[in-house]
Records
---
Amino acid sequence: MSTAIDDDLWSAVGDPTRRRMLDLLLADGGGTSTTLSERLPVTRQAVAKHLVVLDRIGLVHMTPTGRERRYEVDEAQLARAVAKLSAVGATWDARLQRIQRIAERIQRSKPG
């Protein structure tokens, strides 16, 4: 993934409403902005805007169904996103462990 895609990914999954939408879409096998808005504390228009963001990054894909659009999670793209986010998490875990070891050495070297 490129830096721009990474930034878009972080932005997309950084929003708790979008994460909840992904959960609902996965649990229900898909949905529309109307069905999602019935289960979220936001308007149908807000849901539609969130879905545009998720669609742009490739986490969901849309199929026209009559007058509405049905969205489903792209599980392959979600798996790639999870792997990318996990790799970043592992990098930060390693950095924090190094900082902790440095802090412990400093603490042990203090007199008294």
Note: The mean pLDDT is 91.
---
Amino acid sequence: MSDDKPTAGQYPFTGGIYPEMYRQRLWTMRQYAGFGSAEETNARFRYLQQQGVTGLSVAFDLPTQMGYDSDDPMAAGEVGRVGVAIGSLADMELLLKDIPLAEVSTSMTINATAAILLAMYVAVADKQEVAPGQLKGTVQNDILKEYIARGTYIYPPAPSMRLVTDLFAWCGEQVPQWNTISISGYHIREAGSTAAQELAFTFANGIAYVQAAIDAGLEVNAFGQRLSFFFNVQQDFFEEIAKFRAARRIWAGIMRDRFGATEPKAQMCRFHAQTAGSSLTAQQIDNNVVRTALEATSAVLGGAQSLHTNSRDEALALPSEASVRLALRTQQIIAHETGIPAAVDPLAGSYLVESLTDRLEEEAQALLSSIDELGGAVAGIEAGFQDEEIGRSAYETQKAVDAGEKIVVGVNKFTDGQDEASPNLPGSDPKAVQAQLRRLAEVKAGRSRPAVRQALDEIQAAAADPAVNLLPHILEAVRLYATLGEIAGALKNVFGEYRP
């Protein structure tokens, strides 16, 4: 068992990144939301704030994630389906209407187009007379996991990494309280990885980002303080608690020993957690309330800084208001009725949890060594290493479910109960799609075409010069109401597209 003391707030932060943890401040309670139109999503945000949410979390539709405007033929049938459609600054203005950006913390789950969406957010704040230095939040900006587990990439890895580090550098000067990346293990786990693989592949990506930032001339003790992580919370209760404890210990060692970070805040593994979407079932959906409650409890016992709880009906569609409220109430009950937040690292010293923490650290370190031998995360991606490892784990899990060795209540056992009536779920609204297309057409008709053309030309010129930071040029184009698709297209003209 490790000799590291389970003291929170001190290297290697196994027990938590702050000495008092939730005694001093509870975790941020987020609820992920995004509907077809900016107006609908804004209404859901304001509803969630009324219910006690302490941080907003934005889901974008696939065209927005992939750099297509809603009127692009490639976007047909996907506008507003899995998140909100954002095509220009006009959409972002509606999305954030009446939301005080100086007071709220906003997380945006966006990767390939992260720089564009962040520029839009900053431009809206400017219209609210909120200085960039006042803004707080996170942009996921984790492109490497897209090549491993999710697929919403646009450009090849090298220019994609440049966009990541340009955002690091620009935010360091202009938006210093913003978390410039949320290095995501969530989607790696959803794709079927084990807990150890989730840690290893996430941290391998993190190592690549840190090295790229250092190579770009950034100071590790500065940008290292704005790194954050995003982990999954699966159903193996004690293993998940141990995973979070091991994560802090592993990352602290990486930052100190590999990269020479001496600032404690640059050594901390700060993370958002989300209960597992893959654990939700379409059968007997009320069982999902219990699953989510247990997963959320393990995230809190493991020391998460921010938490999203999934809704009971998410295996069927975007969640209803009643289900979202219940998911939020789950967090509030854990926070205010269980007494758990009064204890710092409450399972420290448990033989089970300490041994699981050590085992996960050892397994993750072994996988990290394998990736290092291949030449790092990008080389591993190109060789298919991570993909092959995840595929094998996913296959073994599904085989166990199919054989009945792994029980999923209501799916392969205890299936004789009547399913509950499906709740009234929001769906894709054709009228909202038409309104989005009309607004996009009005934006394009009402702006200065020559000014937009010049701004897009300047983005292409900047993209062709690796020494130039792209963010100021993207921000200027955004302010002129250049669309997301136009800006992504200008970059594509220089960077090309990634073809696996």
Note: The mean pLDDT is 93.
---
Amino acid sequence: MVIGATGPLRIVGGGTRSFGVAQGEVLSTAGLSGVTLYEPGALTLVVQAGTPLAEVEALLAGEGQALPFEPMDHRVILGTQGTPTMGGMVAANVSGPRRISVGACRDFLLGVRFVDGAGRVLKNGGRVMKNVTGYDLARLLAGSHGTLGVLTEVSLKVLPVARASVTLVLDGLEPVRAVQALSRALGSPYEVSGAAHVAAGQARTLIRLEGFAASVRYRAERLCAALAEFGDWQVVPEAADIWRDVRDVSALAGAGDIWRVSCRPSDAPGLAARVPGSDAVFDWGGGLIWLRAAPGTDVRAALGAFDGHATLIRAAPDVKARLGVFPQSAAPLAAIEAGLRARFDPRGVFNAGLMAPAGGVI
């Protein structure tokens, strides 16, 4: 289909992550489903791109393992149907609250197999982590949203599930104080694996500790003492539902446009305050802000210049067209991106227009 394409192709996996507005005939990866290889002892998984994420998570759970980067389910805030797939997860580099401690989806990619714009089947990487020369195409494809090639198979490193988990919870903090508490926790020696502040609704600050039970208990006691000036922290065991809501940004599921803002944690409270009437969830210690703004709000204009970028995740099609889903890249980076697209998709058939800034064409 790729070789004979006479126009743009819109790549669809499970159809759950409709960020941009891609053009063209649908090219579905749903038929590429199944686990090619799973070696629990080697912490290695090879799976076809159309495989439902839920199937993989169930398989891993049976061996006491998981995808450590905690991929979010965008259906909660996007209101989409369908089933998230492994290829879509990698293509969007979907990563959740644990990113601050273990890294993003791309950091666990061992290799990929994909089809480029000329119809060639390419493979990069393997089944083990190792240093190699040449292009790291696996990490390049992660986060490219299908604009460089169609993923057909991905290889990933998995990790054991933590034996125990507790969450430190404190209600009522203002965002500035909350981010200060999260920063202090992340700068401590107590190995924090989740640091978030939900400002929408009842303000709640959350800090997660994971590991062996005795270690978790000790670290929780020490961290509560270290953060005592912020308030009386409640220690909640095994709060998987709390972190699932943080991961999926459930607090912002109501009406309004959703923006994803990457920034320096210390800047986060001030940036959120620049968008009048918005609700916010601060993840990654403040390094990631999820904002719900009034429909049609130009959040980039409200934020002004800052060290980071803002992506429009949910809005009406006309708002996406007017404001652009993805931010405009700086000229040097834009030149690199154009060069990569010319190399891997010279005809521009894959997800045309998906990552175009306002008024632009990709």
Note: The first helix runs from residue 53 to 61.
